[in-house]
Amino acid sequence: MTPYPTATSSMAGPTFSMPPEVAPTPDMYVIIYNRTAQFVQTTEAFAFDLTAPPLLIDFTVEPKMITREVQAKSDYMDRKYKTYKQNFPSEDAWFKVTVWDRGSGAIVAENGFGKLYSADTHKQIYVGRSGDYQIELSGNDVKVHVLMRAGGV
Fold it and tell me: By C-alpha distance, which of 112, 109, 152, 137 is closest to 46?
């Protein structure tokens, strides 16, 4: 009888090493406002003297959602009436950010959600020049997170 060759384990197991440490990138801007709030027929305004541009205003809107049930007849197979649920933002949900020049009263920048603005829920406003500004936040039937940053490195 001839013996079968047996395998010998001469392979070394894998070696693991830690990835090199990477220092976190510092934010180039100073946070001047960072808040989540409910807006129900609400307006907030405050003054800000922008000496180190730019001013970045990011906002994310969560509108009040409405659920409706609709009866519709299927044009497929059994052709019976069925009840369907539809979810969509309330027609009363809107939000607007307006940046005014306090000296002239002119609108420097403006953007929002609903009404005259698109239904995009995340937007940004950019103001690139120095000035004494009034920033107005107004809205209805929305929960909004607003982050304002100013100044470059």
Answer: 137
Q: How far apart are CA 116 and CA 97, in angstroms?
A: 12
CATH architecture observed for domain 30-64+90-150: Sandwich (2.60)
Closest CA to 125 of 62, 59, 60, 61: 59
Prediction pTM value: 0.74
From 107, 147, 128, 148, select the one nearest 53 (Cα to Cα): 128
The domain limits of the chain are 30-64+90-150
Residue by residue, pLDDT tens for the chain (153 residues) are: 556 666 555 556 666 667 777 666 666 889 999 999 999 999 999 999 999 999 999 999 999 999 999 888 877 777 788 888 999 999 999 999 999 999 999 999 999 999 999 999 999 999 999 999 999 999 999 999 999 999 864
